[in-house]
User: What shape does this take?
Amino acid sequence: MFTVVRLAVPAIGRAGLAALLIATLFPSSGQAQGGDIPRTSSGRPDLNGIWQALGNAHWNIEPHQASAAMAMRPGPLGPVPADEVVALGAVGSVPPSMGIVVGGEIPYLPNARTLRDDNLRNWLTRDPEIKCYLPGVPRATYMPYPFQIFQSESAFFITYEFAGADRNIYFEDPGPPQVDSWMGQSVGHWEGDTFVVEVNGFNGQAWLDRAGNHAGWKLQVVERYTMMGPDHMMYEATMEDPDTFSRPWAVRLILYRNIDPDARLGVFKCVEFVEELLYGEYRKDPARVESSEPR
Assistant: This one.
């Protein structure tokens, strides 16, 4: 016999519902460890392997409903997909997601929230993913592409399928980053069975998802990787940026190890695939783009 529990969504609000579901489905990392987990010869959790996030948070890390497209324009009876994406139909539409933001909502400062909204309106020309720029942290983790962890007693390295991005995670702090970058500088250490990575030195140009959520160059990220079983791991990332957010906040999701013995990380260095987008207008004979404007 099953008991159906009906939640009064209007009473608690979407953000409250998201927080409730996240707390239920994703307990804190201190409670997450259970069952036998693989370990290295030194007794550390063995994180080696190909991992991937499931779900639709890469569209928008906050809770959101399904929509016709990310890029919209005014229509006769309401917003319709922008000309550039209308021909994609369902392929260009946005699936729903409960989000991965702990608490459901990013605590933006007023000006930063305005910029987020402006980013969304200009998604086609601003999203770094569209131009194959490096995804940044933590976005690289929950994009719809796998990544691989290489771990030893003296080194920790992550390589991502998207854009050939990678991170060398230092065990000894080399000091302030010599230059700001898309992926930042990462320094890791173990806290019990949790691998903690502190990341800074960002260039402030990366987004957090396709919805225009963003941070600035002062962003500091603390990642926590905690094995929950042989083939799944809790990932948490706490963000702090005094120019963008009113307080620190976090995302939380589960990562899954690919257990196929033939699994390999693919090559998706997409720079060559966006040359027409970035430089096509400078061709001697530019490609013609037919408008999808209804006749």
